[in-house]
Amino acid sequence: MKAVMITLDQAHYEEIVKSLSKLNIRGFTSWKSVLGRGSETGDPHYGSHAWPSVNDAIITIVEDKRVKPLLEYLKKLDEDYENLGLRAFVWNIEDMI
User: Fold this and answer.
1) At what angle do helices 13-22 and 64-80 cross, to 10 degrees?
2) Global pTM?
3) What does the pLDDT look like over 20-49, one tens digit per residue?
């Protein structure tokens, strides 16, 4: 099992949630209004007057075989909308209850 953490511009949220279902990924947890700044490019997302946009975050725990299709989908979405910002990180899950 793997954990996939996705940080995304809020504009991507509904599209990504719909796509999780299409990729047979049912469970996830999300956080709204996550603030931050990309490490390489992109504008800050601070929810302020000067930088009004904000990010969201989604984490899902999936079988190993579901990681590659999810990352491929997210990479394409990020390439199609480079100015919005989207990152995904994958961790091993050691145990669950």
Assistant:
1) 150
2) 0.90
3) 999 999 999 999 999 888 777 777 888 888
